[in-house]
Amino acid sequence: MLGGGLLVVLVAVVAVLLPVLVLSVDAARAPVNGVRGLVVEPSPPETQGVVPVPPTQPSERDFVAASTLPSDSTVAEPVPASLPVVPIVERRRVQRGSATPQAGDRAEELGAAVEREWDRSDAARRRRVERFGGTPRTESAVEAGLAWLAAHQSPDGTWDRFRFDRQCPADDRCPGVAVRRDAYSLRAGVSGLALLAFLGAGYTDRAGPYQDVVRRAVDALLAQQQRGGGFSGDDGMAGYNDSLATLALAEHFALTGAARVRAPLEHAIERLVASQQALGGWDYGRSPTSGRNDTSITAWMVQALHASAAAGLAVPPDTLVHAALHFARAAESDGQVRYADAGSGFKLDDNLRPVYRRGPAMLAAGLTCEQMLGWRIDGSAPRLQRDLILADPPSAAKARGRDPSKLHNEYYWYYGTLAMFQRGGADWERWNARLRDAILPLQDRTANARGRRRHTYGSWRPYGPNWGLFGRMGSRVYTTAICTLTLEIYYRHTPAFLKDDVLFSADDWRAFLAGATGRQRHEAARCLAQLRVEVAEPVLVDLLKDQQQRVALAAAEALAGLDSPRGVPLLEDLVPTLPAWQRAVYQEALQRGQAAAALPPVEGRVRFFEPRAGRATLDLPRSYVGMKVAVYRGGQLVAHMRVLQRFTGQTVVVAQLVEAAGSSAPEAGDRVVGQ
To answer: How distant, in Å, are the alpha carbons of 159, 197, 209, 307, 490 from that of 202?
Structure first.
């Protein structure tokens, strides 16, 4: 008995400490070895395929008993205090996604789902390269790219897109300096991108072979920071400079916890927040009133804020809610994503109708940020965008002049790789195989007549005849940095289906909606229709009572898409009164909602009950917010409860006690029947 009790205590302690260990930053790890250094010789041919690792089965403590109560729920009196009080040891689990277990998955691979977010040690890097489809050749390419970047860092710690060739030998200068946008400074942005490449491999000023390179780069960014928190010497390219410098400092802080970086990083975050447009995007300049929302710049801003939040710094949820609304607005019905809604990227046709510039990079950037901001992986918009991206896989021929638009390039590959990696499974396998085939042969691996490596060795050419739209602006530094970052995907990021974080909650959306106009509430309902169930559904239930009919209808339609019948009464009342063209739109939602309501009663069980709060976690294979359930024990009714919240990809829901049938409270194992 004593041994069994001790085991229970040890398991409980581990369960409490594990999340802290998972989310901690390993700032003091030993220098990384193995793949470190200049391993740049040719490697064996690529091996195809990678088995995606499904999420681990959630334990009881993975769900929180405290949840947001829908506005129309009725709460009974608290359970009498004489009943035993069980501590809440559960927390909310979010965004597991729906990765499908594959044949051959090993138990140790399943356990690796809790690998630390910022662990880029040698061992973690090797594991993730093998697990997610990297190869010796991709690692060799990363090391060669970093060696080239290190050799072309300026003495002041920055990277100069116009004069990086000053670091070359006189008889072997690297071509490819910037030839576009020479009137604007991009030094902070390009330097931030180059620094990110070193951090992506786990190399910091405390670990790895490039400690001096990283230290000087961080010092240079801190020295460039302006009084207002930004990093740009002029306003013309402030959006890129500020976002990329902030992103680099956020990753550095996450990896090292360096005290000297924290305050400047917090100041930089404040600058990003202050420069956001009213419609949720960002522009080239810092003014929040330009009225222009640029998806390319906004994508870097979202990455910077996402990394800052993951590193433990405060990011206002309202800023992220507005950013989500930008991407919902920028996505068109065919899945394509607008580059900008004013100025460059926008014009009116002869009939004064808006025409928006689009392209593969904006499509992939949109899907990447949608997934970061909590879109459901299986939502209609992400699935449509996934199909478009997979129909245009990486192609070296397109990137080197075969694409008339010149938009199929390394920038697209970077975002396409992020987007597909987040999805995992077969989507990632297909993309990854084509990426390796396209990007690796384009890396410079040339030698001179004497067999010595050229100074371009390890870099990627930035432009050539009829190609290199962005390389002409960013130079060889830009293309080498972004290609290296792309190949670091295997360990620089964790796939969405293995992550538990969420950037905003249902209450954050409620706070936004409290002061929103009717138009904003309607846009919010459309956006929420794509978001994770745990965030969207409680808010959509609230919006059913909105005073504006179109807002309530949009909420009812979105709920039907989540297989919730909560909007059926409203749709039954209003659909017959709508014009014919509008009636057809909502008739489909009505039929889906009615089908959900007609399903037979669902059965499950109580997993955990917290008497003092009157809340429980239930295992229900099918449910919706507001669903009433009866709890039975031995055939006797114990209580009635109401579902408060369900979770993406899970059968566990949070429920509130509505009425107790007697003196007994629900217990783990009690039978639950949906009503």
So the answer is: 20, 9, 10, 15, 12
72 DSSP assignment: T
- 93-110 tens-digit pLDDT: 222 223 332 333 333 333
What is the tens place of the pLDDT at every residue in 7-17? 333 334 334 33
Residue 617 bridge partners (DSSP): 608, 654
Give the chain's count of helices (H) and strands (E): 23, 8
Alpha helices by DSSP H, listed for 152-294, are: 187-200, 211-224, 238-256, 259-274
Report pLDDT for 352. Answer: 66
CA distance linking residue 248 with residue 263, whole number of Å: 14
Q: How far apart are CA 381 and CA 383, in angstroms?
A: 5
The single residue listed with the structure tokens 């394509």 is 336
Alpha-carbon dihedral 232, 236, 239, 242, rounded to 10 degrees: 0
Q: Which residue has the higher pLDDT, 448 or 628?
A: 628
Query: From CA 417, how far away is CA 548, in angstroms rounded?
Result: 41
Instruction: Please name which of 598, 549, 414, 431 lies closest in space to residue 488, comparing C-alpha atoms.
Output: 414
Torsion of CA 268, 273, 276, 281, to 10 degrees: 90
| pLDDT attached to residue 571 | 97
Beta bridge partners of 335: none
Nearest to 415 by CA among 374, 377, 378, 363: 363
Start-end of H helices in 497-645: 506-514, 518-528, 533-543, 549-561, 568-574, 580-597
- Please give the helix or strand (H or E) that residue 127 lies within, else none: helix 122-132
Q: How far apart are CA 255 and CA 45, in angstroms?
A: 33
CA distance 387 to 416: 12
Among candidate residues 580, 581, 665, 585, the one with its CA nearest the CA of residue 631? 665
- In Å, how far from its chain's centre is CA 515? 27
Residue 346 pLDDT class (50, 70, 90 cuts): low
Quote the CA–CA distance of 142 and 243 in Å, as a whole number. Answer: 23
Identify the residue whose tokens are 């250094």: 37
Can you say whether residue 626 is alpha, beta or left, with left for phi > 0 and alpha for psi between -120 and 50 degrees? left
C-alpha triplet 473, 479, 482: angle, nearest 5°: 115
381 forms bridges with which residues in the sheet?
A: none
Least confident of 116-120, 144-148, 217-221, 339-343: 116-120
Average pLDDT, the chain: 84
Measured distance CA(35)–CA(217) in Å, rounded: 23
The rounded percent of the chain whose pLDDT value lies above 70 is 81
Residue 86 has pLDDT above 70, yes or no: no
The pLDDT tens digits for 159-209 are 999 999 999 999 999 999 999 888 789 999 999 999 999 999 999 999 999
Instruction: Give 604's strand partners.
Output: 672
User: Of 336, 304, 472, which Cα lies nearest the Cα of 345?
Assistant: 336
Q: Which pLDDT score, from 0 to 100, does residue 349 have?
A: 65
Question: What Rg value do the Cα atoms of the chain yield, rounded?
Answer: 27
Q: What is the 3-state secondary structure (H, E, C) of 658-670?
A: EEECCCCCCCCCC
Mean pLDDT score, 369-393: 95
Among all chains, which residue has been given the structure tokens 């060739």?
Answer: 165
Q: Which residues of 309-336 are buried (b: 16+ CB within 10 A; e: fewer)?
A: bbbebebebbbbbbbbbbbbbbbeeebb
What residues does 375 pair with on adjacent strands?
531
Neighbours of 225 (CB within 10 A): 21
CA dihedral 144, 147, 148, 152 (to 10 degrees): 170
How far apart are the C-alpha atoms of 568 and 262, rounded to whole Å? 50
CA distance 612 to 233: 57
